[in-house]
């Protein structure tokens, strides 16, 4: 098992939530 996998998944989750926040901030684009 890869030791770095949990870290990568956590980073991806953080990046996804950050992108989601940026997308929600954008006015009226769906």
TrEMBL record:
It comes from the Bacteria. Residues 1-30 are annotated as: Disordered. Residues 11-22 have a biased composition (Basic and acidic residues). This is Integrase.
């Amino acid at each position: 098992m890869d030791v770095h996998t949990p870290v990568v998944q956590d980073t991806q989750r953080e990046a996804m939530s950050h992108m989601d926040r940026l997308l929600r901030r954008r006015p009226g684009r769906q």
